[in-house]
Amino acid sequence: MPNIIEIDHLSKAYASGTKALDDVSLDIREGEIIALLGPNGAGKTTLISIICGLVVPTGGTVRVGGFDIRTDYRKARKLIGLVPQEIAIEPFEKVANTVAFTRGLYGEKPDPAYIEQVLRSLSLWEKRDAKTIELSGGMKRRVLIAKALAHRPKVLFLDEPTAGVDVALRREMWQVVRQLRADGVTIILTTHYLEEAEEMADRIGVINRGKLLLCRDKTDLMGEFGRKQLTIELDEKLDALPEGLDPKQVQLSGDGLSLVYEYDAHAERTGIARLLGDVAARGITVRDVATHQSSLEDIFLNLVEEKA
Start and end of every ABC transporter domain (predicted)? Predict the structure, then answer.
């Protein structure tokens, strides 16, 4: 797929000397979902704000659909829909009217049928005549998404889209995002819910202290950095790791009732069969065996801690 966004050596520094972004380069493919992860203050929102034309970069370039965000601002911005982290909508305006008004801001002609389609896709049609002040927090966030989609953008930025939304509503919104991707919209989201990124994203980008540490296909990332852990629960407590077992590979738990072995699940030989044979040969009775796969949260924390 062609690139819809091209970010080249992007930087942002403030007069105080703080570097919000430090030489970030990233290509985003048309029709993908990419999740940007990072701790608070990492630079995620700054990156989105620059692409959307809300913050002026110190250096570097950004092109959206081939249009430079500074020299072809109007053409670039028309391709973008933004759902900000903060909920800021007209409190006493009706839902349908506020979405239609946003469409007009982009110079688009009225299209009641399309507005209805957007509202229905977000389960807002029944609330079309309600004032936004009467809506729950989750519904207000849906209105923000509807406003961002009002002018049919090619790219949609979701900055913490499910913050403050209950689990059931969050999963419904995941379905909406997947349908948008199926319709050809490119989705870039930031989130603190790592299971959200793991569930939805095609690629994962990790930002920390203004630097893009990596951006990889999710399956490749999980395969390269994710490891499996085998826990062997013992019938009787051990005071020390049995002689002959490699302490670099096998650890005895603090309570002495488990042996913990980390291994590469993609390796040709995991070493599990040999380990279990060694344990049995030493007369150690095994009560149970369990495995644990590294999650995206484990990988993210390891990456951020390594670069801290």
Answer: 5-234
